[in-house]
C-alpha cells in the first residue's frame, strides 16, 4: 500500500543521504590527511636543506678562519725569523753614513 511505499522511500532516502555523507566525510579526511602529509614532508625537506646549508656555511667559515690564522702565523713566523737573522747578523749595519759596530 501507499504507506509502505512512503516508508520504503523515506528509508531509501535516509540510507542514500547517510552513504553520501559518509563518502563525503571519508573524502574530506583523505584530503586533509594528504595535505597534512605533504606539508610535513615539505617542512622536513626544508629543515634538512637549511641544516645542510648551515653546516656547509659553518664548515666554510671554519676553513677560511683556519686558513687565515695559518697564513697570519706563517707571516709572523717569517717576519720574526727575518728580524732575528738581521739582529744576530755580524755584518755591521749602516745608519746614514755612519757605521754602527
Main attributes of the structure:
mainly alpha; two-stranded antiparallel sheet; 1 helix; 101 residues; 86% helix
Description:
It is rod-shaped and about 140 Å long. The model has no long low-confidence stretch (mean pLDDT 89). With 101 residues, it is mainly alpha-helical. It has a two-stranded antiparallel sheet. It is 86% helix and 6% strand. It is built from 1 helix and 2 strands; from the N terminus they run αββ.
Helices and strands, in order, run as HEE
Rg: 43 Å
Q: Tell the overall outline.
A: rod-shaped
Order of strands across the main sheet: 1-2
Number of helices: 1
Spans with pLDDT under 50 lasting ≥5 residues? none
Mean pLDDT: 89
Describe the largest sheet. Answer: 2 strands, antiparallel
- Overall number of strands: 2
Oligomer: single chain
Residues in β-strands, percent? 5-15%
Q: Helix share of residues?
A: over 70%
Amino acid at each position: 500500500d501507499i504507506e509502505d511505499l512512503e516508508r520504503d522511500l523515506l528509508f531509501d532516502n535516509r540510507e542514500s543521504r547517510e552513504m553520501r555523507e559518509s563518502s563525503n566525510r571519508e573524502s574530506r579526511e583523505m584530503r586533509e590527511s594528504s595535505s597534512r602529509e605533504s606539508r610535513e614532508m615539505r617542512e622536513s625537506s626544508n629543515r634538512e636543506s637549511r641544516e645542510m646549508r648551515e653546516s656547509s656555511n659553518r664548515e666554510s667559515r671554519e676553513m677560511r678562519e683556519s686558513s687565515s690564522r695559518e697564513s697570519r702565523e706563517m707571516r709572523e713566523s717569517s717576519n720574526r725569523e727575518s728580524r732575528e737573522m738581521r739582529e744576530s747578523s755580524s755584518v755591521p749595519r749602516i745608519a746614514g753614513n755612519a757605521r754602527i759596530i
